[in-house]
Amino acid sequence: MHGSLIETDIPCKVYILHINEQLPPAERFVIQDLDETHLLVQPHRLEYVKAEVKAWQQKNQFNPPADLRQT
Protein backbone atom coordinates (compact mmCIF):
# COMPACT_ATOMS: atom_id res chain seq x y z
CA MET A 1 0.00 0.00 0.00
CA HIS A 2 1.48 3.35 -1.05
CA GLY A 3 0.37 6.60 0.47
CA SER A 4 1.44 9.89 1.99
CA LEU A 5 1.51 10.19 5.76
CA ILE A 6 -0.15 13.26 7.25
CA GLU A 7 0.60 14.18 10.85
CA THR A 8 -1.60 16.91 12.29
CA ASP A 9 -3.52 17.96 15.37
CA ILE A 10 -6.86 16.38 16.21
CA PRO A 11 -9.16 19.24 15.05
CA CYS A 12 -7.41 19.42 11.68
CA LYS A 13 -7.56 15.65 11.28
CA VAL A 14 -11.30 15.71 12.00
CA TYR A 15 -11.70 18.37 9.30
CA ILE A 16 -9.72 16.31 6.78
CA LEU A 17 -11.91 13.28 7.50
CA HIS A 18 -14.98 15.50 7.07
CA ILE A 19 -13.97 16.76 3.62
CA ASN A 20 -13.08 13.20 2.64
CA GLU A 21 -16.56 11.99 3.61
CA GLN A 22 -18.22 14.81 1.64
CA LEU A 23 -16.72 13.51 -1.62
CA PRO A 24 -18.21 10.76 -3.77
CA PRO A 25 -16.68 7.37 -2.88
CA ALA A 26 -14.54 7.27 -6.05
CA GLU A 27 -12.92 10.62 -5.16
CA ARG A 28 -12.12 9.95 -1.49
CA PHE A 29 -8.47 10.23 -0.61
CA VAL A 30 -8.04 8.77 2.90
CA ILE A 31 -6.53 5.30 2.67
CA GLN A 32 -6.38 4.67 6.41
CA ASP A 33 -7.05 6.49 9.67
CA LEU A 34 -3.98 5.41 11.67
CA ASP A 35 -4.43 7.06 15.07
CA GLU A 36 -5.42 10.36 16.70
CA THR A 37 -2.96 12.46 14.71
CA HIS A 38 -2.02 10.44 11.61
CA LEU A 39 -3.72 9.68 8.30
CA LEU A 40 -2.51 7.82 5.23
CA VAL A 41 -3.78 9.50 2.06
CA GLN A 42 -3.46 8.97 -1.67
CA PRO A 43 -0.25 10.73 -2.78
CA HIS A 44 -1.82 12.35 -5.83
CA ARG A 45 -4.43 14.05 -3.59
CA LEU A 46 -1.95 15.47 -1.05
CA GLU A 47 -1.84 18.96 -2.62
CA TYR A 48 -5.67 19.07 -2.65
CA VAL A 49 -5.72 18.21 1.07
CA LYS A 50 -3.10 20.86 1.85
CA ALA A 51 -5.05 23.52 -0.08
CA GLU A 52 -8.32 22.63 1.66
CA VAL A 53 -6.71 22.75 5.11
CA LYS A 54 -4.99 26.05 4.35
CA ALA A 55 -8.29 27.62 3.21
CA TRP A 56 -10.04 26.29 6.34
CA GLN A 57 -7.33 27.67 8.62
CA GLN A 58 -7.43 31.09 6.96
CA LYS A 59 -11.20 31.20 7.22
CA ASN A 60 -11.05 30.38 10.93
CA GLN A 61 -8.17 32.67 11.83
CA PHE A 62 -8.98 35.65 14.04
CA ASN A 63 -8.08 39.00 12.51
CA PRO A 64 -8.68 41.87 14.94
CA PRO A 65 -10.23 45.08 13.64
CA ALA A 66 -7.72 47.70 12.51
CA ASP A 67 -8.39 49.92 15.53
CA LEU A 68 -7.37 47.09 17.91
CA ARG A 69 -4.15 46.13 16.15
CA GLN A 70 -0.88 47.00 17.83
CA THR A 71 1.73 48.70 15.69
What does this entry look like structurally?
Strand 2 and strand 3 form a beta hairpin. The mean pLDDT is 92. The protein has helices at residues 10-22, 46-59; strands at residues 4-7, 30-35, 38-41. It is α+β, with helices and mostly antiparallel strands.
CATH architecture: 2-Layer Sandwich
Kindly identify the CATH topology.
Alpha-Beta Plaits
Distance between the termini: 51 Å
Order of helices and strands: EHEEH
Radius of gyration: 15 Å
Provide the low-confidence segments as ranges.
Answer: none
CATH top level class name: Alpha Beta
Structural class call reads: alpha+beta
Could you name the CATH homologous superfamily? TFB5-like
Count every helix, treating DSSP H or I runs of 4 or more residues as helices. 2
Task: Tell me the helix content.
Answer: 25-40%
The overall pLDDT, averaged over residues, is 92
Biggest beta-sheet profile: 3 strands, antiparallel
Q: Strand share of the residues?
A: 15-25%
Based on Cα principal axes, name the global outline.
elongated
- Strand ordering within the main sheet: 1-3-2
Got a strand count? 3
Number of domains: 1
